[in-house]
């Protein structure tokens, strides 16, 4: 699975959009970009994933650049409950039933 | 969506005793369960992979005789921390692969005193 690079931490004002970047310059053609988050003292929570098209669900939007070397997770109207560590993980479906490997992620602090 | 129920959410035990953590897949069958450990301000570290009906595979540096994993059915995997010591105090999380990605339990905070 390709390596990802994320900023260590970010702040966002409550009600504003939170834009979390992820660099995955070595991504290969069959690898998806997954985003998970972990709120303090809870298990990781799936947010969204995509291959090359932009994706949106009830939680967030995922914008993937045309060359697929980077992506941005967008929380459109951040709330205090969105304070968490956000993990960007690149993974191929061909990896089968193998575990998800977590990096350090980005610690997002939503400020009132 | 697919849910993994993990119990207990927190436990305090004395040094030298054993603690069992359970993870149940509530609405799907999990042939494989992944066990992670997380120390404060660190990321999740994979400890082992449990497979229904066979032996678990452990990551390098994880003592299989200390962290006993049992996956006797398609809906239940357990992790037993044997002869616990204060350095085993940590946050333990289980997870399983599902069609859209992975789903995780809510975690167990173990404190060994």
Brief descriptors of the model:
heterodimer, A: 112 residues, mainly beta, 5-stranded mixed sheet, 4-stranded antiparallel sheet, B: 113 residues, 7-stranded mixed sheet, 0% helix, 55% strand
Provide the β-strand percentage band of chain B.
Answer: over 45%
Count all strands of chain A and give the number: 9
User: Gyration radius of chain A, to the nearest Å?
Assistant: 13 Å
The value of Rg of chain B in angstroms is 13 Å
Fraction in beta strands of chain A: over 45%
Provide a descriptive summary of the structure in words.
The complex is a heterodimer of chains A (112) and B (113). Chain A is mainly β. Chain A contains no helices and nine strands. In chain A, the strands form two sheets. Chain A has a five-stranded mixed sheet with strand order 1-9-8-3-4, with no helix packed on it. A four-stranded antiparallel sheet of chain A has the order 2-7-6-5, with no helix packed on it. Chain A is globular. Chain B starts with a strand and ends with a strand. In chain B, the strands form two sheets. In chain B, strands 2, 4, 5, 6, 9, 10 and 11 form a seven-stranded mixed sheet that branches. Chain B is built from no helices and eleven strands.
């Amino acid at each position: 699975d390709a390596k990802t690079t994320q900023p260590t931490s970010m702040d966002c004002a409550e009600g504003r959009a939170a834009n979390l970047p992820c660099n995955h310059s070595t991504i290969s053609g069959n690898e998806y970009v997954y985003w998970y988050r972990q709120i303090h003292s809870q298990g990781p929570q799936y947010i969204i994933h995509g291959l090359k098209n932009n994706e949106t669900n009830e939680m967030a939007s995922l914008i993937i650049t045309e060359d697929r070397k980077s992506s941005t997770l967008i929380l459109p109207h951040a709330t205090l409950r969105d304070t968490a560590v956000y993990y960007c993980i690149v993974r191929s479906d061909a990896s089968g039933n193998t575990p998800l490997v977590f990096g350090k992620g980005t610690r997002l602090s939503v400020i009132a | 969506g697919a849910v993994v129920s993990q119990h207990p959410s927190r436990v305090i035990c004395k040094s030298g005793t054993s603690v069992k953590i359970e993870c149940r897949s509530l609405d799907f069958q999990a042939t494989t369960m992944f066990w992670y450990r997380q120390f404060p301000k660190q990321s999740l570290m994979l400890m082992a992979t449990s497979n229904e009906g066979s032996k678990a595979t452990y990551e390098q540096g994880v003592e299989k005789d200390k962290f006993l994993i049992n996956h006797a059915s398609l809906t239940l995997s357990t992790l037993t921390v044997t002869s616990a010591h204060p350095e085993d105090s940590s946050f333990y999380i289980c997870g399983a692969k599902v069609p859209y990605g992975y789903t995780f339990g809510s975690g167990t905070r173990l404190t060994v005193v």
